[in-house]
Amino acid sequence: MRNTAKSRLTNLIRKKLSDKRGFSLGELLAATVILLLASQVMTQGMAFATRMYNESLTRSHAKQLCSTLTNVIEKELRYTTSVNKGSDGTVLKYFSPTYGKTESAFAAIDENENKIDGTAGGEIAVQLTAEDGSLYWQKLISSASYSSFDLKATIQSVKLEGTTFHVILEITDKDGKKIVTNKFDVIAVNDIKLDQL
């Protein structure tokens, strides 16, 4: 029975193709509608695939940025020798072993090197004290690491308990949506002098 239906359909198609009159207007309209629906589905599918690809790339770059910043922050804190901290353990200033400055502090800055308050995020920099006593910003990594996907970073907190620093680093996209949050601990190698900066 299945073969019979198949052969009937095949014969009908052959008959239509060999017929001198061609296809009717209704058949052409039906074919056009089917073609339009198929092209609409393909267009939507391509837009979805492109959006997913871009989101995947953004997540990948955010994870890479987070990893790079984590390594640099770990190096800064691991080898510090002096820290000023608040009553809740928050690190206010520390000695930067990389830059050899006596008063340093992490912050997020914008493209004009102005400190960004709150959780907006920007580029992570260290505020350093020059020899003349003026303050300036030193970016931890190149601006190019952020710009390809308009990523922003924020150090939510740096706290010291004993000889361990507890750090929360957050990477957001251009709209402020959190992509990666990294909570990590850094154990200081040197003896830390408290509140002597």
pLDDT < 50 runs, ≥5 residues = none
Overall residue-averaged pLDDT value = 87
Q: Main β-sheet, in a few words? A: 6 strands, mixed
DSSP summary, beta strand count: 9
Features:
single chain, 197 residues, alpha+beta
Protein model, in words:
- The protein has three helices and nine strands, in the order ααβββββαββββ.
- Strands 5-4-3-2-1-9 form a six-stranded mixed sheet, covered by helices on one side. Strands 6-7-8 form a three-stranded antiparallel sheet, covered by helices on one side.
- It has 197 residues and is of the alpha+beta class.
- The model has no long low-confidence stretch (mean pLDDT 87).
- The chain has helices spanning 2-18, 25-78, 144-147; strands at residues 82-85, 91-96, 101-109, 123-129, 135-139, 152-161, 164-172, 178-187, 193-194.
Give the secondary structure arrangement, pairings included.
Elements: H1 2-18, H2 25-78, E1 82-85, E2 91-96, E3 101-109, E4 123-129, E5 135-139, H3 144-147, E6 152-161, E7 164-172, E8 178-187, E9 193-194
Parallel strand pairs: 1-9
Antiparallel strand pairs: 1-2, 2-3, 3-4, 4-5, 6-7, 7-8
